[in-house]
Amino acid sequence: MKHMLTGEAALEVIQKIGGLDSVAMDTNFLEKGIDSVKIVEILIEFEMMFNIDVLDDQLNLDELSTPKHIQDYVNGIIAK
């Protein structure tokens, strides 16, 4: 069975890359000042962690507005 991205791990990486003191699964990135460049940095971190390709034609950064959305997106790729 493949390892999936847990909420805890997602939040840890997002806090680190986003430079945030705290973040919740439903935190809106724009409200915290996390722009599309940071979101791509976050996705690349998960790409390296899970040896997956996150930057594909299906990627729509507008849909990745919270940690939960990123977790679901990454786990969808892992599950393929």
In short:
The protein contains three helices and no strands. The protein is mostly helical.
Report on this structure.
Helices cover 50% and strands 0% of the residues. It has 3 helices and no strands. Helix 1 (7-18) crosses helix 2 (36-50) and helix 1 crosses helix 3. The longest helix is centred in the middle third of the chain and has 15 residues, at 36-50. The relative contact order is 0.23.
Strand content: under 5%
Number of helices: 3
Radius of gyration: 12 Å
Shape: globular
Class computed from helices, strands and strand pairing: mainly alpha
Low-confidence stretches: none
Average pLDDT over all residues: 94
Helix content: 40-55%
| Amino- and carboxy-terminal Cα gap | 12 Å
Question: How many runs of DSSP E, i.e. beta strands?
Answer: 0
Strand-helix topology:
Layout: H1 7-18, H2 36-50, H3 67-79
Helix pairs in contact: 1-2, 1-3
Name the descriptors.
80 residues, mainly alpha, 3 helices, 0% strand
